[in-house]
Amino acid sequence: MTNAQVKRCSWCGDDPLYQQYHDEEWGVPIWDSRELFEKLVLDGAQAGLSWITILRKREGYRKAFDNFDPEKMASYTDKKLEKLMQNPDIVRNRLKINSARQNARAYLAIQETDDFSRFLWDFVGGAPLQHRRKTMADIPAATTESEAMSKALKKAGFNFVGPTIVYAFMQAVGMVNDHVTSCHRHAVCKSLA
User: How far apart are CA 151 and CA 161, in angstroms?
Assistant: First the structure.
């Protein structure tokens, strides 16, 4: 079967990078706390933008944010944040850059008393929710789970974690399987649960 014949969720279109992300990462359960932290920061950076914009800058973010090392990020000085504002390899939005430091601090605070991964996965009962969405129109922008997670993350000190951002995060890290049922990845992600 050629790449053009593969059935995918329509959101990835025909961009090769987007298709690769869809086929290899999106919806695959992530259990590692550090990987979840990275993804949450990147999803926050996406606010108001398309995911492909962040995907194209992901390596730039990894370099700029010390490979998403929360200990290093939490200790960023205001001078370091100003330097990041000049970095063309990331989205140069002051609120989003400042929130990366704040989110690292919030992550470390959670890690002192709980495992960040467990903290997040508890919102879906510890296992991916299996949906059977037939079309993209069937997929909501937010759910009761994403609203609860958003509220808890905000209470813990995180920024850029509204219910819609959080639901996109949950989809990406496999907490929910929102590949449409006709997509070749739906069954694969279901089997990974």
Answer: 8
